[in-house]
Amino acid sequence: TLSWPSGTWENGPRRSAFLPYKPATVLTNLQRGNIQAKTHHLDVTQFTWHMKAGRGDLRLEDVMTVADINERDEHGMTGLMWSSAYGQTNTVQCLLDRGSNPMVYANGRQTALHMAAYGGHHEIIRLLLAYGADVNGVDEQGNTPLMYAVCEDHAHAVYELLLNDADPCIRNNNNIEAFKLAVQRNCNQAKIVLETHMMHVLSS
């Protein structure tokens, strides 16, 4: 069992990616009652299947009736990639249960695991790995999911990946490994996790 210094990353908040479809609520003039409210009806039919996955708005009917659950959009992304990128855990679980493939590649050879790692969604990382995602898969630049998590200083995601045999010694096409990325980008929380992991490996 790994032992972490008290009061460091493991007690901190679990950072997550900004969800573009659900912006934070602010106190506007409308909410204060200074402006008369106008009712706008959102036509959900304007959203594509992939957009619904990213929003967490897919219904079971949508999943059951889609022609190809692994269909890629114009960005090369599947519904599983969208929901993984934006932290939609329930949608990810639903898609995986119904055969969505975590090993489909986007245009840059990223997988759903890369997307989840970049967003810091460690619960989704755990789910994807349980369904066969490659923890050490590389994109077209040679970057692993661990590198994606490190670059955004997502300590809990880094820990989850290392716990599932992510290799911190893999180098990308620029001959840089995860620890060097953490140092270069001042990702101090990720650096702590990597250092502790390496000390544990060396002492075992």
Automatic annotation (TrEMBL):
Q: Name one Pfam family in it.
A: Ank_2
- Protein keywords: ANK repeat, Repeat
Q: Which InterPro entries match?
A: Ankyrin_rpt (IPR002110), Ankyrin_rpt-contain_sf (IPR036770)
Q: Which domain of life is it from?
A: Eukaryota
Q: Does the keyword Hydrolase apply?
A: no
Q: Does the keyword Isomerase apply?
A: no
Q: Which PANTHER family match?
A: ANKYRIN REPEAT DOMAIN-CONTAINING PROTEIN 39-RELATED
Q: What's this protein's name?
A: ANK_REP_REGION domain-containing protein
Organism of origin: Rhodnius prolixus (Triatomid bug)
Q: What is the lineage of its organism?
A: Eukaryota, Metazoa, Ecdysozoa, Arthropoda, Hexapoda
